[in-house]
Amino acid sequence: MPGETGITSSSAMLQIGDQFDHFQICGHIAQGGMSDIYRAFDLLSGKEVALKIPDKNMIGDPAQYERFQRELEVMRTLKHPAIQRGLGSGRYNNTPYLVTEIVAGESMRDLVKRSAPMSPDAAVSLTRKIADGLAHCHDHEIIHRDIKPENILIAPDGQPVILDFGLALTKGAHRVTYANLSGAAGTPDYMAPEQVEGHRGDRRTDLYALGIILYELLTGRPPFTGDNHLAVMSQHLHGDVPRLDKKGVPPPLAAVVARALQKDPDDRYPDMHALMHDLDHLDEVDVAILEKVSRQSERVPFWRSPVLVPIGIASLLLLTIIALALVLQALHR
Ligand SMILES: Nc1ncnc2c1ncn2[C@@H]1O[C@H](COP(=O)(O)OP(=O)(O)OP(=O)(O)O)[C@@H](O)[C@H]1O
Ligand SMILES: [Mg+2]
């Protein structure tokens, strides 16, 4: 498996050959935001699995066990080729763990690094498959809320597999927001404006994140970057998304990205099905949104508007003349 090492990371707790509950550790797959992922042999089932264990810094967090339980529950509700399958969860020596199917393949982050910018056809095809998985989640009233290339694996046949439902919102689940996880939430590059504002988000929040991914696949970088998280978050709230038709992307596809990345969720596609419809019928997409985006970004603050500036100057001149006249009158008395 690409990226897998025999040597565990400095924060990882387990070494190859260790036995952890009924699992034998075979390798270290990756270090996530808050956990280590191991390849392990399940001595009970005789199968290879992926074992997710919180890293040293998170191990004492009492909420972690509950998060893994919830992640498993979410994965068990879903059954789709684009969704990772959950196998079990538990606690061993006070350490919570999550067991999932092992996905051979590479992280979508590596694919993006290697292949983006990619052709519009390739970008649409990949986005369409991720959208299909997310539509399945949303149809089951599950919102992922942490869609980003790091949380998607690409199987050798090109099938994307969405992982990491640690932040997912389910019907009736208690509130877990970015604020609860601020230190560990990772990159804000894919964060929708409503998440930046602290709202819990809905299906259109995942749609925004997927829009950022599509933008990145087409150009090689997300629309908003910056030196620090705050700078990026502020751009999600107030920054203009560059028009992709001006960067050589076919206008209908640029219009799809523009609509997915509207600041106000009401201005985006209402759901994944509507987005998929447009991706499937690009020849029918209304490109008028591109002009709207341009007008918005060209809008100048009212105090710098072309009408107000001359009026302001004329008023100032008039006031100066009146003041001078009054002074002269006073001097002549
Ligand atoms: N089942 C799996 N098969 C192969 N690789 C995996 C699997 N699960 C996770 N990975 C790899 O491990 C990385 C981290 O996994 P994941 O996103 O679930 O952890 P995390 O970001 O630490 O999650 P959390 O935020 O819930 O702590 C992924 O980016 C992926 O590369
Ligand atoms: Mg992750």
Explain what the structure shows:
With 333 residues, the protein is of the alpha+beta class. It folds into two domains: 22-100, Phosphorylase Kinase, domain 1; 106-175 and 183-300, Transferase(Phosphotransferase), domain 1, CATH 1.10.510.10. It is built from ten helices and eleven strands. The chain has a six-stranded antiparallel sheet with strand order 1-2-3-4-6-5, with helices on one face. A three-stranded antiparallel sheet has the order 7-9-10. It has a two-stranded antiparallel ribbon with strand order 8-11. Strand 3 (35-42) and strand 4 form a beta hairpin. The termini are far apart. The model is unreliable at 176-184 (pLDDT under 50). Adenosine-5'-triphosphate (ATP) is lined by residues 29-30, 32-35, 37, 50, 52, 84, 100-103, 107, 150-151, 153, 163-164, 166. Residues 29-30, 32-35, 37, 50, 52, 84, 100-103, 107, 150-151, 153, 163-164, 166 line the site of adenosine-5'-triphosphate.
